[in-house]
Each structure stands twice: as C-alpha cells, then as structure tokens.
Amino acid sequence: APVKVSKICCIGAGYVGGPTCAVIALKCPHIKVTIVDLNQARVDAWNSPDFALPIYEPGLEDVVRQARGRNLFFSTNVDDAIEEADLIFVSVNTPTKKSGVGAGFAADLNYVELATRRIAAVATSSKIVVEKSTVPCRTAESMRTILEANSKPNCRFDILSNPEFLAEGTAITDLFGPDRVLIGSLQTPEGLDACQSLKDIYGNWVPEERILTVGLWSSELSKLAANAMLAQRISSVNALSAICEATGANIDEVAHAIGYDSRIGPKFLKASVGFGGSCFQKDILNLVYLSESLHLPEVAAYWRQVVDMNEYQKRRFSKRVVDTLFNTITGKRIAVLGFAFKADTGDTRESAAITLIKDFQSEKALVNVYDPQVEHEQIWADLQEASPLVPLDSIKKQVTLCKSALEACKNAEAVVIATEWKEFKEIDWEAVYAGMNKPAFVFDGRLLVDAEKLTKIGFKVTTIGRPS
Ligand code: NAD
Ligand code: UGA
To answer: Which residues bind NAD(+) (predicted)?
Structure first.
C-alpha cells in the first residue's frame, strides 16, 4: 500500500529545491519538510532572521515566513534529514559538463550521483527517492543501481521522476497553480504505490486532473522536451525578427497574428535579444548529446540549431548597435539596462546581457550597467568568467556599475535595454535624454518601450524585429 509521507528531505536548497519544498511545507502543514544543502552560506541565508533569502522570487518571502520553524527547516545536516525522511527530493544542480566525455553538451551528473550515494550510505529505512533535477533520459536507472548496490538489508528504494516546470520570477504562482505536475514511475505495484504517495502530497492543493502519471523514461524525457520546445519558439520568433528588420514587417504584429491561431497560441512569442537562464541552453545541449549517443545525428542537428540561432541573435543585436553608431563604439559610453536573464529575478545565468557587454568591451566601448536586482559582486563575477584572460582591474576600467537607470544613462551615447524590467518602461525618458550626448540612441532588445514616444522626445530608436 502507498506510504503516507510525514517527513520530506530535499537535497539542494537552490532556485528549485528552495521554493518547491517551501510551498509543499506551506500547503502540507502535517508534513515536516527539511531542505538541506552543503553550502553553509546559502543555508544561513534561508535561515536569516530578517528573511534576506538567497534568491529573489516574488511571494517567496511570504511563504517562508509562514512555514519556516513550523514544519519547514533549512539545514546543512544532510545525513540526519535523509535518515528521518520517508521521501527525498534530489534537487541538486546538473550543469553542462565542462571537460571529459560530452564536454560542452552532456549534463554533469556528479552532484546527482554524490547525493544518491549519500542516501544509500545513510539510510536505514526504506525511502522514496524523487528526481527533481533535470536529468538525461534513464538517469533513474543509474540511481537505482547505485542505491541497490549500497543499501542495508530491509531498505527498499523506489525511484520517481518529478521534473519541475516553474519559471523564475513566477516560481510561487507557478507552484501554487501549476499547469500540470508530472510524476514518472516504474509500472510495477511498488512503483505505482510510490507514485501514489507523491500524488497524495500534491493532492493537498493541486486538482487531480492536473497531476499526470506516466512511465519513468517518459517523465524524464518530457522535461527536456518541454524546455526544448519552449526555446524553439523563441528561436523561431527571433529568426523571424531578422526577416522583419530586413523587410519592414513588424515582429510584434507577426507574433500577434500567428499567436491568434489556437493551434499556435499567443504565449512565449516575444522576440528578444536572445533567451538566457540556467536551463534552456543546458537542456537542449543535453538533448543533443542524448540524440548523438543514440546515433541519431539528424535529430541532434535539428535541436542544436535552436541554440545556434540564439547565439546568432545575440551577435546580430550587438552588431546592429555598432553599425548604427556609425560603425564604431570605441571610447563611447553605452548604458546597458538590465543584467538578469529576465525580469523579476536576480539570476544572471546565461544572461544575454553578459554576451552583449563582452561584445561592447571588445569594441573598446565604456559600459555603464544597471540592474534593479542583481548584486554588483555577481556582475563582476559573470564578466570575469566571460573574459577569463582579462584581469578584473582592466574590466573595471571599461565597465561601471550604477545605482539607477538615470545614473547609467548620464553622458552615454546609447542606451541598450537587455532585460524587460518594468521600471525601464517608467523611467523619466525626458530626463534621460537631457543627460545624454546627442544624437542619443536607444536599442530596445526586449520590445519594452514605446518607440514612438521616445522618438518624439528626440531619441533615435532601434527595436528588435523592426526596421531601422
Ligand atoms: P542551484 O544551483 O540553484 O541549486 C542546487 C543546490 O544543490 C546548490 O545550492 C548546491 O550547493 C546543492 N548541492 C549540490 N550537490 C549537493 C549535495 N550532494 N548535497 C547537498 N546539496 C548539494 O540549481 P537549481 O537552479 O535549483 O536547479 C536544480 C535542478 O533543477 C537542475 O537540474 C535544473 O536543471 C532544474 N531546474 C531548474 C529550474 C530553474 O528555474 N532554475 C527550473 C526547473 C528545473
Ligand atoms: C524555463 C521554463 O519556462 C520553465 O518551464 C522551466 O521549468 C525552466 O526553464 C527550467 O527548466 O529551468 P526560466 O528559464 O526560468 O524557465 O524562464 P523563461 O520565462 O522560460 O525565460 C527563459 C528566457 O527566454 C528568458 O531569457 C526570457 O527573457 C526569454 N524569453 C521568454 C523570450 O525571449 N521570449 C519569450 O517569449 C519568452
């Protein structure tokens, strides 16, 4: 019969483990939820008395305030949390491998394996182990082999796949009302029982028809497939934006027109300077690697093109800035508004802003950067990582971090909008104009500002997906 879960452990207190399990704790006051991580600073931040949480996510603080200390705990004591739990989420990072076989494509499963080995080493009772991390198809099988080879007598491990579909910036609303929760299990009686145990947890707030139960491998693959298809929509619309710029068509009008087709749908068709975030590129490359390993080179090439198009879009945009500024930006001051990979997050992983700034640096421009959420230390770390051979001191001679959009735009030749923060729409553009060198250029990489209004003020406006 299905186990009634009373204690949950989540390994990994990151962007996924933290919000996901905080919401489970909030919605299931009868379950004790302990989120563990090896990173002491991260755990301290989750526990901080003034709720200075390690990630910025609208609504998250409220959830943590309600549940923390009641039935939600954050700790670095991984072993105790594993030992007492009936169900364990593995929500560790699975970055793209940087070296070895599959470098640049395959997912680095080292953290998943270490967490799995820890579970096997510590557990003295049966556990349901849930893959929350995004992993290649058939990872659950490796986890099972490791667990079974290292387990103590009378311990059984049932493995489930339960990929997470939340998007950053809307994590809490996504978790409160998910489009669907996906649970994959072996179709054996034990597997189906484990599946039911997890289903009962989500059943505390998610309507039953939104909880999909499928086979393990379908569940693992569905996560990669969903991200690949979402990213593909953006690359498709971005490819069309290049045609628009060359022909006089307007990408917003085109997206609106095609989105009206109920088979296509209106969401996720916003042209941009390129998608970022920790997952789209990583998961597509993972899918490419999987396809190649399965000797399906045509399939691999097909998905690969989604990432190639994204790289092209970023390069195309920075080239357009240089072209428009009379083919040189040497010594010119450029204000980059936004550094996060999308609005309403402080996350910068794979942000298009990093590529743009690097391109401007190599053209010897002076760059002012402002983002309302991202910590300055993070920006320096990202710029250093993007140019490992350039000493940070030299980067700091070219790049200045600013405290407001207005300050960033002062004495600049051009403003580049890299992130769709709402506050950029509401800047006092008259004041920005007054403070800039003339002609004053705006490059809108996010279809954010009212180009007509800015043109009336005097700006020369260039918008993605519209002719100059
Ligand atoms: P993250 O880097 O923010 O968090 C992972 C955490 O796991 C880190 O704090 C790390 O210290 C910890 N960790 C690693 N190994 C550990 C171990 N052995 N024991 C204890 N802690 C350990 O990563 P994330 O953004 O939360 O992503 C986690 C997974 O979820 C990835 O597979 C990712 O693809 C997937 N995912 C992410 C998102 C997203 O929006 N970020 C959405 C859906 C799925
Ligand atoms: C994405 C998916 O939306 C989630 O379902 C998934 O769980 C998650 O990846 C993951 O696996 O990590 P996320 O990366 O947080 O979520 O954010 P998105 O809203 O998907 O945006 C990704 C990037 O695409 C951003 O840079 C965004 O600005 C860009 N984007 C998005 C566009 O350029 N145009 C659009 O129409 C939508």
So the answer is: 12-17, 37, 42, 92-96, 133-134, 168, 279-282, 349
pLDDT in tens, 217-246: 999 999 999 999 999 999 999 999 999 999
Among 170, 165, 132, residue whose Cα is nearest residue 12: 132
Dihedral sign computed on CA atoms, order 258, 259, 263, 269: positive
Q: What is the pLDDT of residues 399-453, one digit of tens each?
A: 999 999 999 999 999 999 999 999 999 999 999 999 999 999 999 999 999 999 9
Residues 6+ apart with CB under 8 A from 292: 105, 300
> How many angstroms separate the alpha carbon of residue 124 from the centre of ligand 2?
40
Cα of 174 vs centre of ligand 2, distance in Å, is: 13
Q: What does the block give as tokens for 239?
A: 């490819």
Please state the ipTM of this predicted complex: 0.98
Question: Quick one: which ligand is closest to 91's CA?
Answer: 1
pTM of the full structure = 0.95
Does the annotation count 402 as an active-site position?
no
Residues in CB range of 456: below 8 A, 6 or more apart: none
**What does 6-35 look like in DSSP terms, one character per residue?**
-EEEEE--STTHHHHHHHHHHH-TTSEEEE
Q: How far apart, in whole angstroms, are the C-alpha atoms of residue 183 and residue 210? A: 11
| pLDDT, average across residues 113-118 | 97
Which residue's C-alpha comes closest to atom 17 of ligand 2? 167
Alpha helix positions (H), 363-450: 376-386, 392-398, 405-409, 422-425, 429-435
CA distance 167 to 238: 20
Write out the H or E segment, with its range, that includes residue 88. strand 87-90
Those residues with Cβ within 8 angstroms of residue 142's Cβ, 6 or more apart along the chain or in another chain: 109, 113
What 3-state DSSP class applies to 368?
Answer: strand
- Domains (ranges, CATH) in the chain? 7-206 (3.40.50.720), 216-468 (3.40.50.720)
Residue 423 alpha carbon to ligand 2 centre in Å: 20
> What would the two tokens of residue 452 be?
């007509």
User: What one-character-per-residue DSSP string does 130-177 give?
Assistant: EE-S---TTHHHHHHHHHHHHPPTT--EEEEE------TTSHHHHHHS
DSSP-derived letter for residue 210 is: G
How far is 231 from 397, CA to CA, in rounded Å?
35
- Dmax (CA) for the chain in angstroms is 77
Query: 33-63: per-residue pLDDT in tens?
Result: 999 999 999 999 999 999 999 999 999 999 9
Q: Is the CB of 166 inside a 6 Å radius of any atom of ligand 2?
A: yes
